[in-house]
Design a protein that fits this description.
seven-stranded parallel beta sheet; about 15% strand
C-alpha cells in the first residue's frame, strides 16, 4: 500500500508543483527555497543530530513553541530543526525563536526525497505535531533508526472515518510510530481503533494550554486599543477564512443598530487574502483602515484590517469580544485558547472539530458560545457587548480554564525522554 501511495504521490507531483507556483503568484514567499521541498538542502546550515520538529504552519508552530523552549532548556546541547510547509509558518518560527533553531521546508513525502533530508541532517528524533502523519517520512525515519513521536496527537471523528477506509494502511503507519502523546482520551481511543498499539499511547493534554503570553501583551493591547478608539466597542475576528468575512460584515451591520460605533477588526488567516478582504469590505460600503503607517483608525472607520503577521495576540488583548475563524466555514476552527488565555469571551461558528474537547470545556465554563449563523452570532456578541459584567465573567472563566489545564509540556518531555531523547 505504501508503494501505491508513493506512485500516486509521484503522479500528483506536477500538480503539487503547479499549485506551489500558483500560490507564489499571490505570495512571492512561496518561491523562496522551493528546492528544499524536493530534498535539496545544500545551502542550509549543517546541524549535529538535531531534534526534528515538524509543525505544518502558523497554528502548529504556535502549539509547538512551549515544547521547543522546553527542549532548548532540558537538552541544551541538542540543536532543534523546525520544518514547516508554509512561508507563514517560517515567519512564525523566526518570530518565536530567532536564530536559536534552524528552519527548512518539509520534504515532499517521496522515499528518495525523504532519504536526502535524513542524510543531510541525521536527526536524533522526529516529533510530528498533532495530525502530521506522513507514511514515507515515518517509514524512512524508522528504517534509519530514528525514533518518531506523534506529539499532542489529534484524531477527530471526521478524520477517523476517512482513515477507516484504509484501515490496514493506516494501522501499519501507526505501528511504526515509537510512541504517541495524545491530546485527549477520545483522540487516544480513535488512534487505538485505527491500529496504534495501546501500550505506546500516553495522554498528555494539549500544548496549546501552555500558551506563552509575552509580558508586554496587555500593554501592547492597551496601546492598540487607544489607537483604535478607547471608547469604541471592538469585535476582533481572528484567523478568518473565505466565506466568513461576508458573514462578519452582515453581523457588523446588524450589531451597529444596537451598538453604534462598533469597530470590526479582521485578521485573515492567510496573507495572500489581505487585498481581497480589503476590497470586499469597500465594495460592501464600509470605510476601511489597515495596519500600516499613515492609515489611522479614525472615528468614521467601520472595519480595521490587520494585514500583518504575528500580532493576533495583541489585537485579541485589545478587544471586547473575539470571533475565532475557520468555524463558520467547515474547517474545524482555529485556536480558541489564545483569546481565552487573555480573558476575552469567544464567539464561533459550529465547525470546531479541530478543537472539539477544548471548545467543549470552554463552553461548559461559559467562556465560549457557538452560533450556527449570522443571526445567532449577533445575539451572542450583542449580549456580551451590552453587559460588561457578563462579558468580564466569561473572560475570567476562560482564563481560569486555561490556567487549570497547563502542564502538557512537562508530560510530553517525559514521553520523549522515555522514547530515548537525550
Amino acid at each position: 500500500m505504501r508503494g501505491i501511495y508513493s506512485a500516486a504521490y509521484l503522479l500528483l507531483l506536477p500538480v503539487i508543483l503547479f499549485r506551489l507556483a500558483w500560490r507564489a503568484r499571490r505570495n512571492p514567499a512561496y518561491r523562496e527555497r522551493w528546492r528544499q521541498r524536493l530534498g535539496c538542502y545544500d545551502s542550509a546550515q549543517r546541524l549535529d543530530e538535531p531534534v526534528w520538529v515538524h509543525a505544518v504552519s502558523v497554528g502548529e508552530v504556535g502549539a509547538a513553541a512551549p515544547l521547543v523552549r522546553a527542549l532548548r532548556e532540558r537538552f541544551p546541547f541538542a540543536p532543534v530543526l523546525v520544518t514547516t510547509t508554509t512561508p507563514t509558518g517560517f515567519d512564525t518560527v523566526t518570530r518565536q525563536f530567532g536564530a536559536s533553531v534552524l528552519h527548512v521546508y518539509f520534504p515532499y513525502d517521496l522515499p528518495w526525497i525523504v532519504r536526502r533530508f535524513l542524510r543531510r541532517f541525521r536527526p536524533r528524533m522526529l516529533l510530528l505535531m498533532e495530525t502530521e502523519l506522513w507514511p514515507n517520512v515515518i517509514h524512512e525515519a524508522r528504517a534509519a533508526g530514528i525514533p518518531v513521536v506523534l506529539v499532542t496527537g489529534r484524531m477527530s471523528e471526521q478524520s477517523a472515518r476517512r482513515s477507516r477506509s484504509l484501515r490496514g494502511f493506516t494501522a501499519s503507519m501507526l505501528r511504526e510510530l515509537t510512541c504517541i502523546a495524545a491530546q485527549t482520551a477520545a483522540d487516544a481511543a480513535r488512534l487505538r481503533d485505527l491500529g496504534a498499539p495501546a501500550e505506546r499511547i500516553s495522554i498528555t493534554g494539549s500544548l496549546k494550554f501552555d500558551v506563552h503570553l509575552p509580558a508586554s501583551v496587555f500593554e501592547e493591547g492597551a496601546a492598540i486599543r487607544r489607537d483604535l478608539g478607547i471608547n469604541r466597542p471592538i469585535l476582533m475576528a481572528g484567523s478568518t477564512r473565505p466565506g466568513e468575512e461576508e458573514v462578519l460584515l452582515e453581523i457588523l451591520v446588524k450589531l451597529r443598530t444596537r451598538h453604534p460605533g462598533l469597530l470590526l477588526v479582521i485578521a485573515p488567516r492567510h496573507p495572500e487574502r489581505f487585498e481581497l478582504v480589503a476590497e470586499m469590505c469597500r465594495r460592501a460600503g464600509h470605510v476601511v483602515a489597515r495596519r500600516r503607517p499613515g492609515d489611522p483608525c479614525r472615528s468614521e472607520v467601520d472595519v480595521y484590517l490587520v494585514d500583518t503577521m504575528g500580532e493576533l495576540l495583541k489585537f485579541y488583548a485589545a478587544a471586547d469580544v473575539a470571533f475565532v475563524g475557520g468555524s463558520l466555514a467547515p474547517l474545524g476552527g482555529q485556536n480558541v485558547l489564545e483569546p481565552a488565555a487573555l480573558g476575552v469571551p469567544i464567539a464561533t461558528g459550529p465547525s470546531l472539530y479541530n478543537f472539539e474537547e477544548i471548545a467543549a470545556r470552554l463552553r461548559e465554563a461559559g467562556a465560549l458560545r457557538v452560533g450556527a449563523d449570522a443571526a445567532a452570532l449577533v445575539e451572542i456578541i450583542s449580549h456580551w457587548l451590552g453587559d460588561g459584567d457578563s462579558r468580564d465573567a466569561a473572560g475570567r472563566a476562560g482564563r481560569d480554564m486555561v490556567a487549570r489545564n497547563k502542564g502538557a509540556t512537562t508530560a510530553v518531555v517525559a514521553v520523549l525522554e522515555a522514547a530515548g531523547l537525550r
